[in-house]
Design a protein that fits this description.
Belongs to the G-protein coupled receptor 1 family. By secondary structure, this protein is an all-alpha fold. It is built from ten helices and three strands. Strands 2-1-3 form a three-stranded mixed beta sheet.
Length: about 325
Amino acid sequence: MEKINNVTDFVFWGLSQNPEIEEVCFVVFSFFYTVILLGNLLIILTVYVGHLFKSPMYLFLNYLSFVDICYSSVTAPKMIVDLLAKSKIISYMGCMLQLFGGYFFGCTEIFILTVMAYDHYVAICKPLHYMTIMDWDRCNKMLLGCWIGGFTHSIIQVALVVQLPFCGPNEIDHYFCNVHLVLKLACTDTYVVGVVVTANSDTITLGSSVILLISYTVILVSLRKQSAEGMCKALSTCGSHFAMVINFFGPCTFMYMHPDNTFSEDKMVAVFYTIITPMLNPLIYTLRNAKVKNAMKKLWSRRVLWEANAKQK
């Protein structure tokens, strides 16, 4: 059967239809997105200037910050602009790119968080073999696997949607292209596609959650054998990562582990994992990690010294 596609663009309903609320949201989310960019760029710069990327944990953190910037940038700029726009329109191609980018960077972030949990497991449970197991070559292979896994996942999801015909209507009750809402607009039966899309996302989320749960269970059991000082240090390191996992996996689980329908809370939950979580991640690692804080202090000292020398000249 030949694909018929009369839809060239989609119309978002946005976060709210109240202009006053939208103006407030514009200011708030503009601030949030600025914090996301500055906070994560600061982490990347700190890791690079402080040569912390030689440690696997900070190498992964560096890429996580980069993915956070990309992930929030898939939806946040468009949403912020639309808050002051009379018509919130996105082209068909733009919608498909949003779907691809959201799945790509979202799935990649899940894989990086899982790899970071494995890194913590090796550091705490096998400290004598840590440098052998987590060598530079293996770390790069794991990161490459994260990117390939994210790309494969997103290609499958988008390929399932692209082959569907869209004849109208074209209105989406959201602020970005949510795959389940897009499927509802297709002028054909999308039950099988919906099941495959949901199963694909659920497999990634559930599988990664199980690996994270096993990793932290083993870590907690092994901590009983360590000294009080070693236990506090390990808990401090794992605490930051665990907080990031909860911030990201909690909303994602709500969005993708429920049946193929929508809830009124979906928009607020989506705001949390697309904007709030990328904004909080740099704060969590900065406030709880002494090494990152010291590297930032050195970076700030260099800037102050550079400005002082510039004024003298």
